[in-house]
Amino acid sequence: MRIGVSTWVKLVFLWVAFGLSGRLTAQNLVSSAPRADITLNGLWQYVLNQSQDAIPTSGWSTERVPALPLTDGTTSVWYQQTLFVPSSWVQLNRKFFVKLEQAGHYAAVYSNGTFIGDHFGQFSPFEVEVTNYILGGQNNQIQIYVHKADTTYIRAGVDIDQSSCPPSNPDCIGNAYRSATPTVTERNWVGLAGDVTFSWRPSTYISDVAVISSVRNWTLQANLQVSGSGTFTAQAAVLDGAQTVLTLPSQPVVSGAVTLEASWTTPVLWGPSPYGQPKLYTLQTTLLRGGKRVDVVYTQFGFREVWVSGTDVMLNGQKLWLVGNAVDQLSSIRYVNDRREEAFAFFTAESAGANTVESHWDEPGEPWLQLADEMGMLVVGSFFCDGRPQIQSQVDSVTDWSQWMTFTAQEWVQAVKNHPSIVIWRPLDVFPQGVPLSAVSPSLEAAIQAADPSGRPIADGSDIDIWGQSIQSTTNPQQCDNGEAYASKLAADTLPLLVKEIFGNYNLSCAPTFWNTFYGDAFTGGGVGLVITDLIPEDESVTPTWFSISGIGNRPTSSQDIPDWITQTWTPTAVGTQFAGLYQTYWQPTLPSTSPSSGDYQASGLSAAAPETIAFLMPTGVTGSPVGVLIAQDGSGTAWFVVPQPGAYNLLYSTGSADVITPVTVSAPPPF
To answer: In principle, which of 244, 560, 571, 625 could form an S-S bond with 332, CB 3.0–4.6 Å?
Structure first.
């Protein structure tokens, strides 16, 4: 074991604190942690267009997971990855899980050939417990089956007959459960488009944390759910880096739930200027039994509050003004799903006077939302739109579709509720034909409110009204709309009014005049803001270059239409240039400019590691749980980490014959 002298004190402390016995090894040090997350992204085996009835025994090819969605009509994909689990990991009383961030449309997880669980819908993360199917000291096979939306793969418990669909659109019913794109094969895409994670936690654990900050009351509240039986108490502390800045007094867990609360009058408010700054704190939540720690969870959050006051939406007590971009259907920037180009896209948006992003056509992805938290970008929380260039979808049952989508929305809100960047909920935009707003909105609103106790407003005509229109005149498509209808609606509305979409021909010669008029009317007339398209340039053809194939996010090697974060150059759109000037004229004289704040670490020289080895970053100078990634299987001996906080860590891995423990410093990415 190679170890720096300066690290001995920290390691001995950890050894004693976690009650280890025997030889101190990298695996023992990691396995002592109550929790750990291991990213399984990397080279996987795959087989296309096979039945779910049996896991294939031949025909496997190799490709990196996650990857851009398959939009060529592929029906299904089998995936397989080998995971070596040391014996020390399974000797403690803990549970193991596999989590898929985004899989379309149906996904089933298997462990060593045994079916564990499945999920319908690409919009929400999906997790299954695999504890009883993991073998210690051996290679384990994680298999995943994904299938497009058709017949028995649309929603659970049905076998939908699509024989009436036209040959040009054979999945017309399945398409109603997917967001629209220009072609039907793109709409019903298939594949693993998000991160795959293997994790552990104690057998009794904190299963959910909802962080609720109130600017009006100057309080911080944490609602906890606990899985497991016994007598427990819970306590929490707010950390700023490694410093405790607030303590939430302990409370007993009753019927698997507990609420912790404390007054806090001195937080740094989260938000873009002038609402605050993108300041993130960490809530350390601890579960105790008899005074001894059972579990600990670290949750990043921002102290901010959003509410409706008359026809205004307020953020931290100031009127909210949103200007931003709705990302195109199947945009490469979304599905590449990597922090570098997404962060640069946010920077280019800020350069266009934008403080808001909306995914609109699909779930935005955890890296996207995390970066929005770090960079102070506001988010309209959306994931589904049936807006289509031609008739692509039809519902099999209005009631069943509405119930499925309501459940999906609640599941998604539950998963992303702690992101301070999400300031407005609008999970569903345009519904399929034949589905009225009245069939969905009441149950959808109740589901969102149940999943998000913070009271964020919902933009479906209940808390916030929505406006959308064409840039072109309804009477003469060669002329621009004069804005009178919008101004009239704005003047008469008793709710806040958000422009969520402006479509049509942006290249008309009258477009600059239209934007001047519309932006001015929205700002001075009391609108919530404008969310349009084409503020962020997405047509820069870039061939990505990567340090490593390991770590979070996709790693495509072909040319992609994404902002060129490599050279940090881009061509501003005409609309973006005009909006930058409008932002400075109406809102603030200085354009926003922020950068990511979480830690990014690239490890090289790991070629001597055992082929099945997982490399870990173990916090030493910061607080948090170990984060692991598969060492790249391409022979480069590299590993690429992203951790919530920069600072001091130990890099841990095994060569097979020896353990390597190396002190490292994880830095934030350089500013733009």
So the answer is: 560
